[in-house]
């Protein structure tokens, strides 16, 4: 159609040049772009922008090697400064964000080849990053490797690694050109920069002062914490973590295959089964569900032989049986959650596949994450499946009556049985942390104190913390808080009616980079009131404290200015804010963007933490840290049914540790305690901070 598509080289009028893959007139796939200024990028592109893994070298000698999103550094990466210093860390929308380690010029640093052999993107997905190591050390190009879905075997030449849709007919402008050659060429001039890498033999002989490294934490480009360590201390800490994570995992009774084969076949079979199920049920005319659509008998059972059959396609897995529970119910739920069937299939069944995650809890379940991070797939035990099927009719009615519900969204319930193996049951859920903003802290809150803390040595950026780890209270707009607690009460009443306990409120925090990390507040909030008055947003006649506008600003909702696409976790309506005349609102983050405010999504608040006596110099006044934060939350783990005998035994055994644990025996008291705890965490603005 007279537009660039495939492999090509283009030189622009301003002397910029691009060489690589094109799709419908824009850069798409692997390619190299050289600016007339001398800056060069080699890596992946999407929609004409740098997207995925890539290496950027600036003419001043700086070099970034890591992940990109929408043309900006986003995710994990390594930045090498012109003077030879290195920073290993994470970025968010082009800014340093999160924890990382800075190695000054001439100091020891880990083997770059070892560190770059495996990387992680911004969603925590493990990925092969051979191209990262190429930026620093020469190596021979590996054999071409691509990820394949069950539905196709892609035929391709050796030209480009990441282009899964190129056939053998594709030809290069230069037979010997490849992305790997470009990467080697990019770094072949490193010697001219005058900053050679220090060999490990010489590093070992350096003086002690040259082995200092800096553990840093950034918040949207602002350095908020720094700790100086020696290289040996850092390596010792890393080894201890590796030992901790290297412990033999608990045996999972549902799995009896070798780890590699088990994971590969399960993921492949999940993709096969979900594509078959969604493709089979979607064309059926929509109708209201009936009582016969619920229960264990409402299922589709199909055998998937490797060679294919009259009803199933051939595939590269092993023979297996597939069972889909209540297909009509979950089809209607997906539509109720405004989820497009094609997007659902492409998210889970895409060529990039599923990523296995480590279990954050003690259940021993296996978790898979879709390639775009929108969906989480979790293995279930047989009792949990029975609880979900029993609860499903009431769940269907509840989410239909309450579009703002915070309860986990379920999209499908399936079972796989490999030939000669045991049954493995899965549920597909929405990922509540698939958000537009980076989640800096996450908490699993149950309203209990028994064992609800995390060992400090085990805490890292991705750790899910617990009740006793939460040192903040959150002050919100009056209307937003009322809407939140109204829905939490409704959801807890529903779970109570289903005799469900042990569920949690999962809370995610995005911290806005503060202009001042510490602020002096009186107990009554007088200084905050005074500060707010100076900006024209002082307390109202009712004494309501409004959120200062300098960090986060609530503005009248404009549908054309924000994304209204339903997320995988929340589909609710736009919320109204008391501070904007009870109108529907958007959240404006200066310099970042404009977001739609929904229940449990993009909810602004002020997080206040009271400093302990050791952190202050004077005892005459109390000091607080105040942050602008954006909240994300949802109710999870709702498949644990109340068992009186078991819970009584557990409660009485734990009395010596937590006398209040007896109150969690009954679902009604469990819900009451959780709500009571949350009321202390989210106090009304006229309440004293405790």
From TrEMBL:
Enumerate the Gene3D superfamilies for this protein: 2-Layer Sandwich (3.30.810.10), Histone H3 K4-specific methyltransferase SET7/9 N-terminal domain (2.20.110.10), Phosphatidylinositol Phosphate Kinase II Beta (3.30.800.10)
List UniProt keywords, sorted A-Z. Answer: ATP-binding, Kinase, Nucleotide-binding, Repeat, Transferase
Extract the SUPFAM superfamilies matched here. Histone H3 K4-specific methyltransferase SET7/9 N-terminal domain, SAICAR synthase-like
Domain PIPK per the UniProt entry, residue ranges? 260-682
Q: Where is the composition biased (Basic and acidic residues)?
A: 199-209
Look up the EC number in the record and give it.
2.7.1.68
Q: Which reaction does it catalyse?
A: a 1,2-diacyl-sn-glycero-3-phospho-(1D-myo-inositol 4-phosphate) + ATP = a 1,2-diacyl-sn-glycero-3-phospho-(1D-myo-inositol-4,5-bisphosphate) + ADP + H(+)
Task: State the source organism's domain of life.
Answer: Eukaryota
Start and end residues of each stretch annotated as Disordered: 188-209
> Which InterPro entries does the entry link to?
MORN, PIno-4-P-5_kinase_pln, PInositol-4-P-4/5-kinase_C_sf, PInositol-4-P-4/5-kinase_core, PInositol-4-P-5-kinase_N, PInositol-4/5-P-5/4-kinase
EC class, as a word, reads transferase
Q: Matching PANTHER family, A to Z?
A: PHOSPHATIDYLINOSITOL 4-PHOSPHATE 5-KINASE 8 (PTHR23086:SF25), PHOSPHATIDYLINOSITOL-4-PHOSPHATE 5-KINASE (PTHR23086)
Q: What is this protein called?
A: Phosphatidylinositol 4-phosphate 5-kinase
Q: What is the lineage of its organism?
A: Eukaryota, Viridiplantae, Streptophyta, Embryophyta, Tracheophyta
The primary gene name is LOC115747379
